[in-house]
Amino acid sequence: MTMFDLASGPRLSKSEDTRRRIVLGAAAVLVEKGYAATRLSDIAATVGMQAGSLYYHFDSKDDLVEEVLGFGVRYTHDYVRKAVEALPSDRTPGEVLFEAVAAFLEALLAIGDLSPAHLRTFHQVPLEMQERLRPPRREFGRYLDELISAAITSGEVRSDIDTDVLRLFIINSLERVVDWPQPLRERKGNSAVKMMRTLILDAIRAPR
Amino acid sequence: MTMFDLASGPRLSKSEDTRRRIVLGAAAVLVEKGYAATRLSDIAATVGMQAGSLYYHFDSKDDLVEEVLGFGVRYTHDYVRKAVEALPSDRTPGEVLFEAVAAFLEALLAIGDLSPAHLRTFHQVPLEMQERLRPPRREFGRYLDELISAAITSGEVRSDIDTDVLRLFIINSLERVVDWPQPLRERKGNSAVKMMRTLILDAIRAPR
DNA sequence: GTCTATATGTGGATAGAC
DNA sequence: GTCTATCCACATATAGAC
Prior knowledge:
The structure is a homodimer.
Chain A (H helix, E strand, L loop, with lengths): L13 H20 L6 H8 L13 H25 L7 H18 L3 H8 L5 H27 L9 H13 L10 E2 L2 E2 H13 L4
Antiparallel strand pairs in A: 1-2
Helix pairs in contact in A: 1-2, 1-3, 1-5, 3-4, 3-5, 3-6, 4-6, 4-7, 4-8, 6-7
Chain A binds a DNA duplex through helix 1.
C-alpha cells in the first residue's frame, strides 16, 4: 500500500497544486470550526492568500466544499478497489472482504482532515449537493454489498442479518474512527486498523 | 421500558411546554437543513410563531441549540442507568452490559430528531459550548467503562482490546443507527436494536 | 407571551488594479 | 494569479406595541 501523500503525489501543474492546497486547507478549517463558522478568509489564511483570491480557483464557497467532500470519496473508494485487486487470486470471499475493511479504514486515516471534514459536513450542505455526492457513495456501497454477499454465500459471513445492515454497520463503525483521539489509535501495540478489523470480523463472521 | 413521549410526559407548565416544542422544532430543522442553514425563522415557523418571539424563551440561537444538544444527552443517559438499575440482581456483568447497549440504542431511537441533531450539530457549535457539553458525555463514558471492565473481569468480554476502544466502538456504532433509512430498522422481523445488540455482542465477547 | 419593525454585523461575492 | 475595495444580502438580535 502506498502512503497517501497530498503534498507530492503525481506531479501537478502549479494551478492544480494551489487548488489542492486550498482543498486541504478548507478541510482543516471545516474540521476545526464546522461548516457554518468556516469563513473564506479562514481558508485563505491557511493557504496564505486573501479571501477574494479563492474565486480564481472556485466559483463559490460551496463549490470548494463540494470538492473537499468529493475528493475523499474518490480517493478512499479507489484505494479499496486497488487493494482488493492486488490480492492473490486464491483468497476466499471472506478474506477479500476483511482486506477491504482494513483497506477502507487505512484510506480514511491516510487522507487526514478530509475524512472528518466529509463526515461532519455532509449533512450541512445544500440538499442538491448532497444528491450529487450520493451516486459515488452508492456505487461503493454496491461494491461492498457484492463482497459481503459473496462471503455469505461462501459461509464465512453470517446470514441471519441483512446485507444492508451489515454494510452500514461496517461503514459507520469505520468512518468514526477518524474522530478517535490520536493516542487511542495505537494501544498495546495494536493499530486502529487491526483492532477494528478484529472487532468487525468477529461481529459479522458466521458462527462456527 | 416506557416509551418516550415528548408531547405529554410529566405535566409541564404552559411556558415549559412551548419551550419544549421549540426545542423539538429546532431539532427537526437542524436535521433537515444543517446548523448553518437553520434560521430562527424556520424554527419559529415549525412552532407557529415569529422569529423574534423565540427570544422570550431563549437568549440566542446558540442558547437554543445548546438546549437541543443537552436534552438528548441527559435523556439517553438517564434511560440507560434506569434500565440497568431495573435489572434483576442475578444478572452477570456481561448480561448487564448487553442490556445497557440495547437500552442506549432504544433511547437514541426514542427521542427522534434529537439524536441525529446532536450527532450532526455537535462539531458545528462554538468550542466553548462543546466544552460545556462534554462533562456529561464523559461521565456516561466512565459509566460504560465500568460496565465493560466488569464484564472483562468476569471473562465475558474480550481482554485483548483496550476498554476505551471497545467503548468508542460501541457508542459510535449505535449513534449512527439513527441515520439508517427507516425501512432498514425492521428487517426479517429483526429490529435495529436486536441486530445491533447481536453484532456488538459477537464483536466484543470473549472467545469461547 | 407574541407580534412588527428595525438596527446591526457579518461574510460571501464581484470588479478592477497590478 | 493575487490583491484591495466594495457591494449587498441576509439572519441574528433588539425595542416597543399589543
